[in-house]
Design a protein that fits this description.
There is one protein chain. By secondary structure, the chain is mainly α. The chain has a domain of 74 residues: Winged helix-like DNA-binding domain superfamily/Winged helix DNA-binding domain (Arc Repressor Mutant, subunit A). It is 58% helix and 0% strand. The protein contains six helices and no strands. α2 crosses α4 and α3 packs across α4. The longest helix is centred in the middle third of the chain and has 22 residues. It is globular and about 40 Å long.
Length: 114
């Protein structure tokens, strides 16, 4: 009978990987894939456009895949099946200067209704 530690380990790994994303990427990915919101609903929740949600999800998921490859999920995922010579180059953040654009925190609701 399984004791549930595998599920806990998997959840902890997901949380660690998500914490490596920018706040906007993390918010978009969580709203779209954990909360199962549509792109439009996520955009309203994030006070941004649908295009911004799409871009943040795309970049966030790409980063999660890269981090998953680095973590070397034994027996799972691309890292275990793709030869090292076929893997992609390191993420741009490892070789290029940091993005000068700062992520801002989301505005807090004021309690007023529109």
């Amino acid at each position: 009978m399984p004791d549930g530690t595998e599920a806990v380990d998997q959840r902890d790994q997901i949380i660690r990987l998500l914490s490596a994303l920018t706040p906007r990427q993390r918010t978009a990915v969580v709203l779209r894939y954990w909360e199962d919101l549509s792109e439009a609903e996520a955009a309203r929740a994030m006070y941004c456009s649908v295009g911004t949600v799409k871009a943040a999800c795309s970049r966030g998921l790409r980063r999660l895949r890269e981090l998953g490859d680095i973590a070397g999920d034994a027996g799972q995922g691309r890292a275990a099946t793709t030869p090292a010579t076929e893997r992609t180059a390191p993420p741009p953040s490892a070789t290029s200067p940091p993005n000068r654009r700062r992520e801002t925190s989301l505005p807090q609701p004021t309690g007023r209704t529109a």
